[in-house]
Write a structure and sequence with these properties.
By secondary structure, the protein is of the alpha+beta class. The protein has a single domain, classed as Rossmann fold (3-Layer(aba) Sandwich), CATH 3.40.50. It has ten helices and six strands, in the order ααααααβαβββαββαα. The two termini are 30 Å apart.
Length: 261
């Protein structure tokens, strides 16, 4: 879903949605507003991120040259937060230690899957997959899950939804209603023993209402609260719940049930 439309269009809207995270001064705010008006990002978002979709979208506004909203706003953020992370916008200094780094580049993993050592993976820029391969995958599997983290600036949730609303699968374009159903990660103690929820302060994974979702015609989109780009890293219990649904161990991601069907 990393089509071109996902990248530049929602960025200005995110800075206005989270002003306490992007606390720009009035001068820089005016610069971003002028850039947005000139390049048409928010206008495009407001016109085409509707449910049901109004029809095929025209090419999205370009982010080249003077319309490079992403580089402009991130450059401003690095003055305010030297450890700003576009994969998780609330991250601050110091940088978190990451002993795993990039797992696909690990020597042991490459050896285990017989991948060539010492070879870099090329960048991914495959073109408009939402209009070609993605619908075929959804129709053949009839159970596809697309997940986005609400705090991801690199691939914002609204950008992914824009791509979905421009995609036709199983004979209909886009979602007919906006994601609004609860994405719920059960409190394990309550689900297993019938006891009151166990609010374990030492637990490293959140539970309860963790996002919102929409499921139509074999496709489920989940927008996860407090999650960044690498969802299992930021919300591991939410990622595990999605795996339970995919296997399938549970019928719904909105209920309390855990375990095998």
């Amino acid at each position: 879903m990393a089509d071109y439309v996902c990248f530049p269009v929602p960025h200005r809207a995110m800075t206005r949605e989270y002003p306490h995270i992007f606390p720009f001064n009035d001068t820089f705010e005016a610069e971003l507003a002028a850039l947005d008006e000139t390049c048409g990002f928010t206008a495009f978002l407001e016109e085409y991120l509707v449910f049901p979709p109004k029809g095929p979208q025209p090419p999205s506004p370009t982010s080249d040259g003077e319309c490079d909203m992403f580089d402009t706003l991130t450059s401003g953020m690095y003055f305010l937060n030297r450890c700003f992370n576009t994969y998780h916008i609330t991250t601050g200094c110091p940088y978190a230690v990451d002993p795993i780094t990039n797992p696909p580049d690990g020597v042991h993993l490459r050896s285990g899957v017989t991948a060539p050592a010492g070879r870099s993976r090329p960048g991914i820029n495959p073109g408009p997959r939402a209009l070609t391969s993605s619908p075929r995958v959804i129709e053949r599997l009839n159970k596809t899950i697309i997940v986005s983290g609400q705090l991801d600036l690199t691939l914002p949730s609204n950008g992914t939804l824009l791509a979905i609303q421009n995609m036709t699968w199983n004979g209909v374009m886009g979602f007919q209603s906006a994601p609004a159903d609860p994405f719920f990660v059960p409190y394990v103690a309550a689900a297993i023993d019938g006891e009151p929820p166990n609010f374990d302060v030492w637990s490293l994974a959140g539970t309860g209402l963790m996002g919102k979702l929409r499921a139509e015609r074999g496709l489920t989109f989940v927008d996860v609260f407090l999650a960044g780009h690498q969802l299992p890293q930021w919300q591991p219990a939410a990622a595990f719940r999605q795996l339970e649904y995919a296997l399938p161990r549970v019928e719904s991601m909105s209920g309390w049930r855990t375990g095998r069907l």
